[in-house]
Design a protein that fits this description.
about 180 residues, mainly beta, four-stranded antiparallel beta sheet, 1 helix
Amino acid sequence: MGGESAVDTATAVVNLVDKVCTLVKSNTVVTMPEFASALPPGVDPNQVASWEGWSSTPQSLTDPILYEVNLPGFSNTSFSLGVRFNWGGMLPGQPFSYVKDLEAFVILNSVTLVHDLDIDVKFAKTGTPITQDHTVMLTGSFNVKVSHKLLGPEFSDFYAIRVFGNGAAQIAQQQQS
């Protein structure tokens, strides 16, 4: 009826890029083709640059990962999982800080000769408004798959991603049961 309050209109947060993106395939790094975002429904991510409050430089977070190879003469597999995003933009009349231009990336330092490394990322289709902090959160996950070049798949590890409109971010390995 047009009388929605700022808090009411921020109860829905969407991300238009919610498909699985490959970041590493057979030890080769690939760039994420589209950026994710956590914005109100119906807002075009390309039209939010004029909102007040956007960070002047993107926030970045990297998490170094090491897989030890217990074979004499072989190096360990070492890489970093990362996210980079702009944060803090506020839709006029709303108290919430949003996220735009969210990019996941991988920095490969070394991959042992016996491993193939594949890494995918996926962000959720919807975000979560956190009313008490006046910010939004978008979640996602990295799926790291390690295969032995001769013996096939060895294991997969999952890392949860949480990115907030206030500039905070977290990458944490998820324990598998």
